[in-house]
Design a protein that fits this description.
- This protein is α/β, with parallel strands linked by helices.
- It is 47% helix and 14% strand.
- It has one domain: Rossmann fold (3-Layer(aba) Sandwich).
- The protein has a six-stranded parallel sheet with strand order 2-1-3-4-5-6, with helices on both faces.
- Bound molecules: nicotinamide-adenine-dinucleotide.
Amino acid sequence: MANQLLKGKKGIIFGALDERSIAWKTALRAVEEGAQIVLTNAPIALRMGKINELAALCNNAPVIPADATNVADLENLLQKSMEHFGGKMDFILHSIGMSPNVRKAIPYTDTNYDNFLKTLDISALSLHKVLQSSMKLDALNEWSSVVALTYIAAQRTFPGYNDMAEAKALMESIARSFGYHYGFAKKVRVNTISQSPTITTAGSGVSGFDAFFTYADKMSPLGNATAEQCADYCLTLFSDYTKMVTMQNLFHDGGFSNTGVSQSIIEEMEKAAKANG
Ligand SMILES: NC(=O)c1ccc[n+]([C@@H]2O[C@H](COP(=O)([O-])OP(=O)(O)OC[C@H]3O[C@@H](n4cnc5c(N)ncnc54)[C@H](O)[C@@H]3O)[C@@H](O)[C@H]2O)c1
C-alpha cells in the first residue's frame, strides 16, 4: 500500500525500541511512502533494543542517540539530522513514554514524587523540549508536522495507568499550546494521536493491560486500532493532505472514546450475572 505520500519529506522518528513499537512500524511505513528518516532513542534503549536492524530496513537511516529529557542531546540530534539531510526537516514523531512508578508497580496513592517528576519529564516535557529546540534551531520547514502519541487516560480514569495519566494530559496540553505558537511563528502544526491499547513494551507494562486491551476491543465498534494502523494514521498527519490540522488530540481508537457501552459488554455482564446465580 505505498502511494509515495511522503515523497521528498524528511523527518525524525523517536522511540523505536523493537518491532512491536509504534515508532518502528511508523519508520518502516514512512520510508515505504518515500520519506527519508533519522532514527533516535535514549542511549540505554539503543544498547538494549534492535534499532540497527530497523535502520538497515530503512535505507540505512542514521541512528543518533538522544535522551529526550536532555536539551543538549536534542539540539545535537537536530543539528546532525539537518547536516545529514542538507537542510530543514518536515516531520517529527514523538513516540516516548516511561513512568518509573509504573515500572516499579508503585500505587498511584502511594506515589514516589521523584519518580512522578521523572514521568512528567520523560513522557510530557520532552515534547516541549523537542519543539523548543526545533524552533530555536529553525529545524522545521513551513507546514511541517509534529505528532506525539497519547492515551485516553488523559481524559478518563484508568487506574492502572497511574501517573502516566497526568503525563499524557500535560503532553496533550503542550501540543495545543506549542501548536499555537509554532503555528503563528512558522506554520508548523502539532497534534497528538490518542491510540487504542496496543501490545508493546510500554503498553504491556501497565497493570491489568491484558484485561483492558480485551475490554477496549469489545467496547469499540471497529475493535482496537493496531500499531500498523496507528503508523498509517501518523503518515496522513505528516502528509500534505492534513495541512490545516493542528492543536488537536485525535482519537485513533475504533470508536472507543465515544462509546458508552457495547452490546458485547452487556452480554458478558449478563452471562456473569447468570453464572453467579
Ligand atoms: N502501547 C499502548 O497501549 C499505547 C497506547 C496509547 C499510546 N501509547 C504511546 O505510544 C508511544 C510509544 O509507545 P509504544 O507503545 O510503542 O512502546 P515502546 O516501549 O516500544 O516505546 C516507548 C519508547 O520510549 C522510549 N523512551 C523512554 N524514555 C526515553 C527517553 N528518556 N528519551 C528518549 N526515548 C525514551 C523508549 O526507549 C521506547 O523506545 C508512547 O508515548 C506511549 O505512551 C501507547
